[in-house]
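Supplementary notes for students who missed Thursday's class. We covered one full example, reproduced here. Read the sequence, then the structure, then the short commentary at the end.
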Amino acid sequence: MKTMTPLKIISFCCLFFFIANIQGQTLKSVLKKEAKKAISSTSQTQESKDEANNDIVVVDQRKPVKNFINGNIVFSDDFNYEKHGEFPSKWTQMSGTMQNSQLVALGKKEGVVQFITSARLKPTFKNDEYLGNSFKIEGQFYFHGKGNEAYTLYLKDKNDLYATYSITIRGDGIVPAGSSHEYARMPYKLPYPGWRTVQLSFNEGIVKVSYEGFQLINIADLKKTIKKKVKHIKEYTHIEVSALSRSASPAMINHITIAHKGLPLYKKLMAEGRLIFHDILFDNDSYFIKPSSYPAIDRIVAMLNNNSKTYVTIEGHTDSNGSNESNQKLSEYRAKAVMHYIINKGVDGKRLKSVGYGEEKPISLENNEQAWAKNRRVELLLQR
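Structure (token representation):
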């Protein structure tokens, strides 16, 4: 029997470890690949189960758009300054029964309008003509998660009853134009009970409606077929609101705000009976008009020149800082200063009156700078 020399033995050992190392790496690589396959297979199997069970994985639960309301606010009511049990003062009752109430949410009392029965109401304006061709509406509506609950917003044209467009708000989505087969539901479940924020924008026939920040309605050209003729709807005059309600679980609205791009001054004055200006400014504790206010007053001048039979009263209002006497005099002088500016621009003084109310008629009762800024204003009142 031949014996291996020491050199051969060393060479054989090196070759053995080399081959073993390669096989080990290959085995490790194979194991990794098999592990990946197993994970992939498990993931696919789980996805198949999810699809079979109709489970939806929510990646992006959106929220209502902040600062959605911009432009000129023509109507806003959060029911916070209303007397409990009374009818909401900014609304006109059309049917049913409702009252002001309060709801405790997150440890805070909030004013609401509570529907004792199913009912319908609308914002109170002397003339239902305040929307125009570009506007936004935001509201917050409560759902108990019991029975048949719904709220409906009606976009109305007082000159064309057939042009009415409605959106019905449900606890899980929106039904446009009363068409159940177009029911737009949320892609995920929302909790009950709870509030639902709805934001609607209208711009010359383009309608978009978001529900809790998720856009459910997007109409590029709103149109209706009336007596076999297609009519493209480009503007509306006012809104109405209705709710289905039961005494055991009453419908509630937390707030509704309406803003528009801006009606012409004359049309807005005719619709609302008054115009409010926060951009007619004066020097501090003075009745000298700031030059930056001239464009706003010039718009009034142009409106009056174009409508020679319109008579108005100019009202001055201050905040509550300072004494009642000084604020009263300051408001009178400021109203007169605006009147004289308008007269100097060529408007007949017989068509104008001025009056000051000091701090007597505040818009906001809060005691902060934001409230004071709202209360410092000039108003134009239509003389009828």
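Commentary. DSSP finds five helices and 21 strands in the chain. The radius of gyration is 34 Å. If anything here is unclear, bring it to office hours.
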